[in-house]
Each structure stands twice: as structure tokens, then as C-alpha cells.
Design goal:
By secondary structure, this protein is an alpha+beta fold. The protein folds into two domains: about 290 residues, Dipeptide-binding Protein, Domain 1 (Dipeptide-binding Protein, domain 1, Alpha-Beta Complex), CATH 3.90.76.10; about 220 residues, Dipeptide-binding Protein, Domain 3 (Dipeptide-binding Protein, domain 3). The protein has 16 helices and 26 strands. A seven-stranded mixed beta sheet has the order 13-14-15-3-16-24-17, with helices on one face. Helix 7 packs antiparallel against helix 10 and helix 13 packs antiparallel against helix 14. It is globular and about 70 Å long. It starts with a strand and ends with a strand.
């Protein structure tokens, strides 16, 4: 989902698009004290510090949870927290800053705010008040009133939120966007009214917030051009209320340089937890070698938890992409398995023809997949290409320059399409140029990944079918410019259906999926991984599929840390 030109619902960010480093930007007044133990690169004691990397490409100069384009890793999740967490592995919600939330009637939602939660200043390290219902109501109303707030769309049907002690009542219009409100509950941060109400509207959403006052498990200690370091928050409410605590005292998140540098740092034990795509990792796990003590979420292929769906986008507003027969020819001409084994060395898996992530399998219309799904078939590619009227014109497949996996994948896909008689060449452009081209419709084909964690298929199909189509599309929303009013009406119906009415939602999405498979506005390719690999030199008990207690999300990137169960994964870590 895109707010004010910001992609908030991109799955994990494309952290391997390296960016240059700037000068030091901040040292928070609260200074780290000296401890025994070998210091790491940051000067923190190595045996008490978790070093992470792979999610940030720019220096840490912003810790505003409402500035989703610039806020540094850890802003949401280590500092600021949501009302609930969502667990996509076990498909459940976990009360967080709210202990409960219920629909009183069809247009009224009531939240009970958790007692005993302190706001703590990173600058001083001391508590500065308690979380109240007023803070929650303020955060909701701020999103309602300010269209530049990145969560404004999620509260589009909210009239107002009012607080009475620790209870918050949220009233909605007659037509409630239940799906979007559900996203708000586990994605949006709660901010302190006492701090935010004193800021100008511009600073509320885009101010750097260099001295955070927050509720989360850590406090900001220091930053420089290459990292941000956090220290344990002694006032974190979950210590006493949930029995959660971090066994490390510090967490330093490093600005990503390159996948080669990040792999070397991991193997040299200079970092512990990496969310970078490191292609050599399959050779270091799964019993192939134990010398480096590297762990991944799955012990064997695909190694990584599926995080998002990579699509082949086509600008359907112009020929030959406007022909469904041409789009079907493209779908049948592509062999994702070759890309999976070659480019990704088995760290991703082929997507279901609907593109829905595996944890959304209860919503997948198997009948429609069987009737209308596609697979690699050169003969069927020839059949549909003959029907399409394609005249042999040259096309391009555009991906961001520096996204090395997508660049390699685009080259392979173009070779496959060329063998089918579809003349396409890869086009590598800077990421901002590519984003502008997709928004403007100035492209032929592109690889894109525009959705992230969601309890239902709503965010996925909202990105596919969103209407109206504008001269400049919001990045990530119907960038293929596919106009299907009937499908969009069904997506809107799903959005306004209570999330508890699973039977109705399944029936709606079954029809949408049948339409999707017949019209192919997108061609799902593979499930991108929640890239995660970790060194056991200093820490162990990393998130893994093999033990239920460790089946937590292993990602610190946007949309994961502070929204899903990564905080539990961090709390489960133990010294090696």
C-alpha cells in the first residue's frame, strides 16, 4: 500500500540496493557505560551485543515511526509498538499495547489499553509517564485527520476515537473498511500524545525524532554513518506482564554495504543476524558444513520463510500486453524453476498461480487453480501467442539497477521469452527511475513485489485491482493499469466484510481468484524469501521451523519488526 508516494507495504525492502554512506548524524545524550568483554565494531561489549544487518541502506538519521520511508530499522518494534502483533505462521493475533479489541456493533470498535506501560526517554533512560487510552485515541485520530499520515487509508472509514480511562471507543461510518482497520491494528505505531501534540503537522509525520520517547523493549543509544545502536529498556512492560526479556544488552543494526561484505561479516562473526540475500548460504547449512555455525529458518530448501510474491507486471494499457492471450503466452513461456535454482540457489519457491502466500492457503480456490491455472508449457505459449496478434515488436523488462537478484532473474526470463518468440530484453535503471516509470506507465514489463504480511488476501488483491487508474498511479497499486470494475467491486466487498465472516470472505475471494487466473493482470513468479541467516558464535536459539516455540518471524525489516513476532524471536535468543 502506498501513502503519499511511500511504499509501506513492500514486503521486506530491497536492502541489497546499496546506498552511499553519509557523515555521522547523531549521538543521543544517553551514553553507554563501559562493560567487560571484547568490544565489537561499535565499541559495545561483543558478548552482550547482537549485531544485525541487511535491512537499511542509508545512515540512521530518522526515528519517526510515521515517516515510513525514512525511519531506521528498529524504530517500529524496538522503540514504538502497535496495538496487536500478527503471527502469520500460526495465523493468530497477539494482544500487545491493547489487551483486547472487540466490535460492540457493526460500526463501533472498543479497545482496552494495557495498564502498566511506561513511556521511556532514550535521551535520559528514565520513564516519562504512562501509556493511556488518550495516547491510543490520539494516534488513531492523527491518522484520520492527516492525509499525509502513512496509515490514513487504514482509517478511511473511521469517524473518531474517544478515550475514557484505559478504554478507547472507535466509531466508523456506516460502510466500514474492516480489512483496512485490521491492518492498522497490527501495523500502526502508538505515539505519545504529550510529545506529538507539541509538534507541527509537518514534524508529526516527517520530523526526524532524534530523541525518542517510546514504549518498546529498547532505547536508542547512539548512531553514526554506519549503524544505530540500541540498549535494553529496563522499563519495558513485557518483562513483568509477559515474561519476555532480551538476553543481549545492546542491539546494533548496521547499514548494509553489499551482499559480499555482509556474508564476510557473518562468517567472521562480526554480525550475528542478517536479513540480506546472501546467495552462498545454502552451501553453509543443511549438513553441508557446520564449520561456520550458520542457521536459516528452514534447515533445507527453501531455507527462507516466504515473505512476498514476485510478479511479472505488464502494462495492460498498451499492446501487446493488453491482450489476455499475450499475457497467457508469457505465463506459459516462463519456467520459474530455472530462476529459483539458478539465481536464488533454492532459497525461494515457485508461487501458486494465484500468487497468494502459503499461509493464506485456506483462501486459495483450488477449483479455479485446476481449471484456469498455468504452468511452464512451450506448446501452450505458442498457441496463445498465435492467438494474441503479437507482431514481433521488441519489448523491455525493467528492474532496478543494483538489485542483483532481479537483474539476473530478468536476464533469464528474457531468454525464456525469447525462445518462445517473445522479444524482450532486460532494462536496468536506477530504483527511483524505475519507480517513476511504473507509476507513469512508462514501461512494458517489470518484476515487482508490492504486498506484504496480511491476515487475508485483501492487501494482495487491492494492489492488483485498485481503481481508479490515474495518470500517475500510486506506486504499488494497480501499476499494471488493469481495469476490471467487477473484480474491484468484489475486492471492496471483501474490505467491508467483517473479518470474522470467514465463509463469506472465502466465497468472495474464490470469485476474485477465478477472474485473476482467467485474465492474468499479473503473472506470479515465486515467493520471495524473508531473507534470514544467523551466526551461532555468540547467540543461539534463532527462529526456526523445527521447534514450535521458535517459529517466529525472523525479519527486522519494515512490516515485520513491530508488526509480527520478531520481538519473540529476539527474546528467545540465548548466549552461545
Amino acid at each position: 500500500m502506498v501513502r503519499s508516494g511511500v511504499v509501506r507495504r513492500g514486503p521486506v525492502g530491497r536492502s541489497r540496493w546499496a546506498a552511499g554512506l553519509a557523515a555521522a548524524v547523531l549521538v543521543v545524550p544517553f551514553a553507554a557505560t563501559q562493560h567487560a568483554g571484547q568490544p565489537g565494531a561499535s565499541g559495545m561489549p561483543r558478548d552482550k551485543t547482537l549485531y544485525a544487518s541487511g535491512t537499511a541502506t542509508s545512515p540512521p538519521d530518522n526515528f519517526n515511526p510515521l515517516d515510513t520511508a525514512k525511519a531506521y530499522t528498529g524504530t517500529q518494534g524496538l522503540l514504538y509498538e502497535p496495538l496487536f502483533l500478527y503471527d502469520p505462521v500460526h495465523e493468530k493475533f497477539i494482544p500487545w499495547l491493547a489487551t483486547s479489541g472487540n466490535w460492540v456493533n457493526s460500526t463501533t470498535y472498543k479497545l482496552q489499553v494495557r495498564n502498566g506501560v511506561s513511556w521511556t526517554s532514550s535521551a535520559s533512560g528514565s520513564a516519562s509517564g504512562m501509556l493511556t487510552g488518550s495516547d491510543v485515541a490520539y494516534s488513531v485520530n492523527l491518522a484520520v485527520q492527516d492525509k499525509s499520515d502513512p496509515y490514513n487509508d487504514d482509517v478511511a472509514s473511521v469517524k473518531t476515537a474517544t478515550a475514557a480511562g484505559d478504554s478507547v471507543t472507535v466509531t466508523f461510518d456506516q460502510s466500514v473498511d474492516y480489512a483496512q482497520w485490521q491492518q492498522f491494528l497490527f501495523e500502526a505505531p502508538i505515539v505519545p500524545q504529550a510529545v506529538w501534540s507539541k509538534l507541527t503537522p509537518a514534524l508529526q509525520v516527517s520530523g526526524a525524532n532524534l530523541a525518542p520517547v517510546s514504549t518498546g523493549p529498547m532505547l536508542l543509544t547512539s548512531t553514526n554513518s554506519t549503524e544505530a545502536c540500541y540498549r535494553d529498556n529496563p522499563n519495558w512492560w513485557a518483562r513483568s506482564q509477559l515474561g519476555l526479556s532480551f538476553k543481549f544488552e545492546y542491539l546494533c543494526d548496521l547499514v548494509t554495504r553489499s551482499s559480499g561484505d555482509d556474508l564476510s561479516a557473518l562468517l567472521d562473526n562480526r554480525t550475528d543476524w542478517s536479513n540480506e540475500l546472501l546467495r552462498g548460504v545454502p552451501n553453509l547449512v543443511g549438513g553441508k558444513t557446520t564449520a561456520y555455525g550458520i542457521k536459516t529458518y528452514y534447515p533445507a530448501a527453501p531455507y527462507m520463510l516466504p515473505a512476498g510474491t514476485a510478479w511479472l507486471e505488464m502494462d495492460t494499457a498498451k499492446a501487446p500486453m493488453s491482450s489476455v492471450d499475450f499475457r497467457r503466452a508469457v505465463a506459459y513461456a516462463i519456467d520459474p524453476s530455472a530462476v529459483i535454482s539458478g539465481v536464488y540457489t533454492g532459497t525461494v519457491s515457485a508461487a501458486n498461480p494465484t500468487g497468494l502466500l502459503p499461509y493464506l492457503s485456506p483462501y486459495i480456490n483450488d477449483v479455479a487453480v485446476k481449471s484456469y491455472g498455468f504452468q511452464y508449457s512451450p506448446s501452450l505459449a505458442d498457441k496463445f501467442l498465435d492467438k494474441s496478434g503479437y507482431g514481433g515488436q521488441h519489448l523491455t523488462l525493467e528492474v532496478p539497477l543494483g538489485g542483483t537478484d532481479w537483474m539476473a532473474a530478468a536476464t533469464q526470463l528474457c531468454d525464456q521469452l525469447d525462445k518462445a518468440g517473445i522479444h524482450v530484453s532486460p532494462k536496468f535503471v536506477p530504483a527511483p527511475t524505475r519507480d517513476a516509470d511504473l507509476a507513469d506507465g512508462d514501461y512494458d514489463m517489470a518484476i515487482a513485489e508490492n504486498t506484504t504480511v496480511s491476515p487475508t488476501p485483501w492487501t494482495y488483491f487491492d494492489a492488483v485491482y485498485h481503481l481508479p487508474i490515474n495518470a500517475v498511479q500510486s506506486q504499488g497499486l494497480n501499476i499494471e493499469r488493469f481495469s476490471d470494475a467487477s473484480a474491484w467491486a468484489l475486492v471492496r466487498q471483501a474490505a467491508t466484510t467483517p473479518v470474522t465472516d470467514i465463509a463469506l470472505l472465502r466465497s468472495i475471494y474464490a470469485v476474485v481468484e477465478a477472474d485473476f487466473l482467467q485474465e492474468l493482470p499479473e503473472v506470479p513468479l515465486w515467493y520471495s524469501g524473508a531473507w534470514f541467516q544467523a551466526s551461532t558464535a555468540y547467540w543461539e536459539n534463532y527462529p526456526a521451523s523445527t521447534s514450535r516455540q521458535d517459529q517466529n518471524t525472523p525479519m527486522m525489516g519494515p512490516g515485520w519488526l513491530g508488526s509480527t513476532t520478531t520481538v519473540y524471536a529476539l527474546a528467545n535468543l540465548k548466549p552461545h
